[in-house]
Amino acid sequence: MDKATLLYEGKTKNVYVLENGHYLLKFKDDVTGEKGVFDPGANNIGLSIEGVGRKNLRMSVFFFEKLEAAGIKTHFVRSDLDEATMEVLPAKVFGRGLEVICRRRAVGSFFRRYGDYIEEGASLPLYVEMTFKDDDRDDPLVTRDGLVVLGILSGREYDVIKEETRKITGIIAGDLLEKGMELYDIKLEFGYHRDELLLIDEISSGNMRVYKEGKYIEPLNLSALLFA
Amino acid sequence: MDKATLLYEGKTKNVYVLENGHYLLKFKDDVTGEKGVFDPGANNIGLSIEGVGRKNLRMSVFFFEKLEAAGIKTHFVRSDLDEATMEVLPAKVFGRGLEVICRRRAVGSFFRRYGDYIEEGASLPLYVEMTFKDDDRDDPLVTRDGLVVLGILSGREYDVIKEETRKITGIIAGDLLEKGMELYDIKLEFGYHRDELLLIDEISSGNMRVYKEGKYIEPLNLSALLFA
């Protein structure tokens, strides 16, 4: 690869700056979880599994290319599977990182929060919510009005990101459905490259919950089913 | 008082049904807090203080009458200070109780959630948010879209309650300001009486944070300053 400078060491990826100004994401074999069990919703590194980085890269590239083909703007430039790297456009994130979650069914933290009002697994009509990346505060939920008063997003930006998220989720859910799987929820991230809003980060087993015939697909098994 | 049937035993009030169909709120001398210290944001009963019930009733009546005079619809009918009771219109709450919070400054749980993005005590432009009354889940925040997908409020109802909350908060903040005090935040509750949206519950020291010359006014001292 080009001469690259380490910019940020993440839990599952390192980020480098390339000489052309692009970023290089190096996918690691570390996955989040608790006590050795993979849990995409967890905030800690739970274990390391040989080959996971490449699998997540391959899945990300697959979805980024599919989304680009559908007219969605993403940060994806090119990938190198052998090196487990993805070259992307540099982007400015919102605050210290804003996660945009689209839920098609009530599981995970949504069900933990609102279990008084909904059955686990009940359908949600592409419900979108945003949380701050903040491990110390357990990724707090933030409303549209909250993002506005905190100066993170304008109301208009919130609405655009919400609609884009629903479009993206629809495309990914549609692809999984063709392969006999159902997307329950997905976590996306957006940023600005110059004045353009882009889908950034990765799109892989660690960012989504997928079920098949009502049974949860362990993230480590998703890749095999997707590329069967 | 009329023949009354106990409907609900609350932390700081008991609710009875009267023969005329109205509810009777009996204010108790118990206040929420932790380890013997009064904290309006706490979910547990911390201590019992002689006369607190009557003081909170008097303050509630004062604000309900002021709000009614300004055209706000409330559940208030009449009060009996000696008995520490308030007669109100019966109202159907949202879900198992929805708290509507209006914040003029970033303190309390808002600052705890978003401390990465705002200074403690910074001004907020009448920011409104809603949380479910759910002690076990620590009163979870819920967005406009969340309330819609859970079937608790329509988007239109959310917008009406938000605007009504800002109006009410403005009136209460204005009254406190005339008396040299500043309202930082307030927690309201709404319900339907037949088809009419009403401000319900109480409006007292336990529902708001008030400061004077930058110093927090202990809830137990608010009444004396308000009626000085």
TrEMBL record, chains A, B:
Its EC number is 6.3.2.6. GO terms for biological process: 'de novo' IMP biosynthetic process. It holds the Pfam family SAICAR_synt. It comes from the Bacteria. GO terms for molecular function: ATP binding; phosphoribosylaminoimidazolesuccinocarboxamide synthase activity. Transmembrane segments: none annotated. Residues 6-216 form the SAICAR synthetase/ADE2 N-terminal domain. The keyword Ribosomal protein does not apply. InterPro entries: SAICAR_synt/ADE2_N, SAICAR_synthetase. It catalyses: 5-amino-1-(5-phospho-D-ribosyl)imidazole-4-carboxylate + L-aspartate + ATP = (2S)-2-[5-amino-1-(5-phospho-beta-D-ribosyl)imidazole-4-carboxamido]succinate + ADP + phosphate + 2 H(+). Pathway: Purine metabolism; IMP biosynthesis via de novo pathway; 5-amino-1-(5-phospho-D-ribosyl)imidazole-4-carboxamide from 5-amino-1-(5-phospho-D-ribosyl)imidazole-4-carboxylate: step 1/2. Keywords: ATP-binding, Ligase, Nucleotide-binding, Purine biosynthesis. PANTHER family: MULTIFUNCTIONAL PROTEIN ADE2, SI:DKEY-6E2.2. This is phosphoribosylaminoimidazolesuccinocarboxamide synthase.
